[in-house]
What we know:
By secondary structure, the chain is of the alpha+beta class. It has helices at 4-19, 28-33, 48-52, 63-76, 127-135, 153-158, 166-169, 245-255, 272-282, 303-319, 334-345, 350-355, 375-390, 398-401, 433-452, 466-477, 479-492, and strands spanning 24-25, 56-58, 80-83, 99-102, 109-113, 118-122, 139-141, 176-182, 188-192, 220-230, 234-242, 264-271, 293-301, 361-366, 369-371, 402-412, 417-427. Strands 5, 6, 7, 8, 9 and 10 form a six-stranded antiparallel β-sheet that branches. A four-stranded mixed β-sheet has the order 1-2-4-3, covered by helices on one side. A hairpin with a 4-residue loop joins strand 5 (109-113) and strand 6 (118-122). Helix 1 packs antiparallel against helix 4 and helix 13 (375-390) packs antiparallel against helix 15 (433-452). The longest helix is centred in the last third of the chain and has 20 residues, at 433-452. The structure holds flavin-adenine dinucleotide.
Amino acid sequence: xxxxxxxxxxxxxxxxxxxxxxxxxxxxxxxxxxxxxxxxxxxxxxxxxxxxxxxxxxxxxxxxxxxxxxxxxxxxxxxxxxxxxxxxxxxxxxxxxxxxxxxxxxxxxxxxxxxxxxxxxxxxxxxxxxxxxxxxxxxxxxxxxxxxxxxxxxxxxxxxxxxxxxxxxxxxxxxxxxxxxxxxxxxxxxxxxxxxxxxxxxxxxxxxxxxxxxxxxxxxxxxxxxxxxxxxxxxxxxxxxxxxxxxxxxxxxxxxxxxxxxxxxxxxxxxxxxxxxxxxxxxxxxxxxxxxxxxxxxxxxxxxxxxxxxxxxxxxxxxxxxxxxxxxxxxxxxxxxxxxxxxxxxxxxxxxxxxxxxxxxxxxxxxxxxxxxxxxxxxxxxxxxxxxxxxxxxxxxxxxxxxxxxxxxxxxxxxxxxxxxxxxxxxxxxxxxxxxxxxxxxxxxxxxxxxxxxxxxxxxxxxxxxxxxxxxxxxxxxxxxxxxxxxxxxxxxxxxxxxxxxxx
Length: 504
Ligand SMILES: Cc1cc2nc3c(=O)[nH]c(=O)nc-3n(C[C@H](O)[C@H](O)[C@H](O)COP(=O)(O)OP(=O)(O)OC[C@H]3O[C@@H](n4cnc5c(N)ncnc54)[C@H](O)[C@@H]3O)c2cc1C
């Protein structure tokens, strides 16, 4: 076996010849950009730049380019890390001596099949461009993440994304109809639900499903076909305020019921901490003390049905002691909030990152999936866990560097379940080894809490500190189920070249 250095050099030479040297970067500043994603794993490594520094960044422009890259990665045993917009909380960060495969130059819309409600595009297409293309033609996607400005289409499969409209329409996997994927052996295959055609078919395995949540460990997705719908003629957005948090949760649980979900596409509970943080930006004033939560709703459909549904929703909210405060009603105006979050994190541009300290204040997103039956109890227990993080006795180091920004916003998942949205702010500059140790300990307590409420650790973001990952995956999946995952990985990727730093 030749040395790692010569294998990497040969890999870079051969790939440059095959796909063109203009698509290959080996300079250190470019490589350094790919050490970071929006995810928090970097906080847990003292020398993350060296540990996560790729050897090369590749920007393929076609499925054939990706096939060449995979072919040479197998020949020279070079790990490949697929990368989209790097807004996912886990998976796209580099690893020492890997090749990053940045898909964002593959951003063409390939087919718009209006009559059959199908659209096919390359995996690196920005979700914002994808949404714009459809909206300009009177349509909208159902797979629509809040991070549309930076997230890419292929990642929606790789992470099995969460949708704005999950209450009505379910997650990304419900709307992706076919994918093209370059397998670890270099073959490009088109997979759908039992066929290679973008429709349901009963004649064979639904092979596409395997790639949902695979995070680049089983292949590189190069094309995605999704379905879309007409923009509904009417939409209403409204909200009510609650003086008691439990009333707010009860109201939310009542309006997210499956019987309403074809019209109520989204509803959330915003709780105090978040409201106090966001109010000065959105409503330009302090949040009133007496208001502990806001429940909001989006209703879509034909005008008559929307009007009737809104009347019903307003009655439900009032029956749970909700009251109107029109001057506060825009506080969940989602587009503004997410643009603000992205700016704050410095995702939008480098200037903003520097200006807003995006490089030091990192957001840690947690999104456990909690059943309706345990939602309120989980919320209460979680607040106690946050108090422990902040009280200086249980986690003295962590209490100095962590702020709880959003302490739990439930958003509907599939029937009976909720994505429980939590945002923590970490003052990265002050992190030391004690903080790292305490964070892993805290995360263990947090995981036990989620499991004790019959929840699962993450709806989409997928973050588990890497050191705990195998143990926690076995806890949540089961030993045999984890072995099955390993068997599939070994069968498809015997040289372990596809994103080998995660899962195993
Ligand atoms: C402010 C904010 C809001 C968010 N809101 C949402 C939301 O509403 N819904 C939601 O689902 N998520 C949300 N996210 C998380 C994230 O944006 C999504 O999961 C998104 O789909 C990730 O896209 P990306 O292109 O940035 O993927 P990356 O972070 O670049 O990659 C994620 C994982 O997928 C793998 N991967 C990427 N592309 C490919 C490919 N073509 N083939 C194989 N593997 C690949 C990577 O290796 C990595 O493991 C949000 C994030 C932020 C920062």
